[in-house]
Design a protein that fits this description.
16% strand, globular
Length: 468
């Protein structure tokens, strides 16, 4: 039996092999996950209240790159919020001016009105700064009889939409837990904040960040069927036939055509019947702010990969009868929940691969090159884990590297099942079992399929997108 507080084994190699086996997923496991994905997609399209909510967005058009105009947007989805002014140029290109604003832990966990007041203040500050810089932009505190400045809200949390400009928050994710928000219309919360502060802005549209990724990719490429986020959290949105969204019933919006559906696949398989759970995943889930929710997200997203790695590293420090890492020594940061950020895993990979700030020509023998790579990782661990350098051997650096690589590789391969499920569901790909794979997965190998992908993992984590 595996332990998370201390691993037991007769030899270091046995412990590491057992650990690697727990995080290695074969093609048959990926097949099972994808099958379960397809089942939960169907469940979510047919009825409300499912964990994987399959939310109709009421967005029934996808741009083709010919559209023009200037638009204001507010994007809330994680550590930062962004206020953007986007100008579409009509030739599949656009110009963007934006400003980021930090969202503190106090805002994430305090009263929801305080959070939305901060959103409104940030929009006001952006418009004021833009005006003072001499740009031909909007003025926020306009005369009462002047037109409102229209704004779209990109809100990257599960919302049940009832119209393009109305949606009720189902649950918080990504470390947010602002009070008195669940069950409230987020557009109204934002509009009330604008009105309280006499800011002449009107929220006219609500979209998820995955919908934004889909629409953005469609504009710049001329078409797109799926938008996916693999970053702090994860989610996907895709173009669906309205006739398949049977839970819409006989409402006027169900009269045909296509609509973008927000899957909320971060909550896929909350029962964990198909997900390859380890004791480290169970520990993370139990100690999280939302146990038994957002299961898929906790396996693959940037918010959680560092914590999984921290749990594994601590188990190797505490291994019995002899420690496997750091001579049994830890640090205050490593002992603290969420003390290891996923960015550190990425930095370790960069140090090993010679990327980013570690980029340099390789010199000497293969053995000398490997030693140099491990010394770079030693430096990262000493700095980021706040450990004494003499406590970190080259062997320790190699073990931590392998742990981080194994965890990230599992995340990337599991992420691929979400994309595969959408392609199969929409009839663009086949799902072949291991024993029957006899031809290509895509139904039309020669046809280009537009997929928009965004997020810190695919953008910054070495080789994540390739493995996905």
């Amino acid at each position: 039996m595996s332990h998370t507080t201390a691993l037991h084994g007769s030899a270091k190699e046995d412990i590491l092999e057992s650990l690697c086996d727990q995080f290695t997923i074969d093609d048959q496991c990926l097949f099972k996950i994808t099958q379960t994905f397809l089942s939960e997609i169907s469940d979510g399209l047919s009825s409300y209240g499912r964990p994987m909510a399959m939310i109709p967005t009421f967005v029934k058009g996808v741009p083709d790159g010919s559209e023009t105009g200037t638009f204001l947007a507010l994007d809330l989805g994680g550590t930062n919020l962004r206020v953007c002014e986007v100008t579409l140029l009509g030739d599949k290109t656009f110009s963007l001016r934006q400003q980021k604003y930090k969202v503190s832990e106090a805002l994430k966990t305090g009263e929801v009105t305080t959070l939305f007041d901060y959103l409104a203040d940030s929009v006001d500050a952006f418009l004021t700064d833009t005006s003072s810089e001499g740009h031909d932009s909007h003025v926020s505190h306009a005369e009462e009889d002047s037109p409102y400045v229209p704004l779209a809200l990109t809100f990257s949390f599960p919302v049940e939409q009832s119209a393009l400009d109305s949606g009720v928050l189902l649950t918080w994710t990504k470390g947010f837990s602002a009070k008195n928000a669940i069950g409230k219309d987020v557009v109204k919360l934002l509009q009330d904040a604008f009105d309280r502060k006499h800011i002449h802005v009107k929220c006219v549209a609500l979209v998820n960040d995955t919908v934004g990724a889909l629409l953005s990719r469609a504009y710049t490429s001329g078409g797109c069927i799926l938008g996916a986020i693999f970053g702090t959290g994860t989610n996907g949105a895709y173009v669906e036939e309205v006739s398949k969204i049977t839970k819409l019933g006989q409402t006027p919006v169900a009269a045909g055509g296509e609509m973008i559906v927000n899957t909320e696949w971060g909550a896929f398989n909350n029962s964990r019947s198909a997900l390859p759970t380890t004791p480290y995943d169970n520990k993370l889930d139990r100690e999280s702010i939302n146990p038994r929710f957002q299961a898929f997200e906790k396996f693959i997203s940037g918010m959680y990969l560092g914590e999984i790695a921290r749990n594994v590293i601590l188990s190797l420090i505490d291994a019995a009868p002899k420690p496997v890492l750091f001579g049994g020594r830890s640090s205050a940061l490593l002992n603290k929940q969420w003390g290891l950020d996923s960015a550190v895993l990425s930095e370790i990979e960069e140090a090993w691969e010679g990327l980013g700030r570690f980029s340099a020509p390789e010199q000497g023998s293969p053995e000398a090159q490997k030693e140099e790579k491990l010394r770079r990782i030693q430096g990262v661990l000493a700095q980021r884990l706040e450990m004494s350098p003499p406590d970190i051997s080259l062997a320790d650096a190699d073990i931590v590297r392998k742990v981080c690589n194994t965890i990230a590789t599992r995340a990337a391969r599991m992420s691929g099942t979400a994309v595969a499920a959408i392609l199969v569901h929409t009839g663009r790909a086949r799902l072949w079992d291991q024993g029957e794979q006899s031809s290509a997965g895509l139904k039309d190998e020669g046809k280009r399929i537009g997929v928009g992908v965004d997020g810190s993992l695919v953008e910054f984590y070495p080789h994540f997108q390739t493995k996905l």
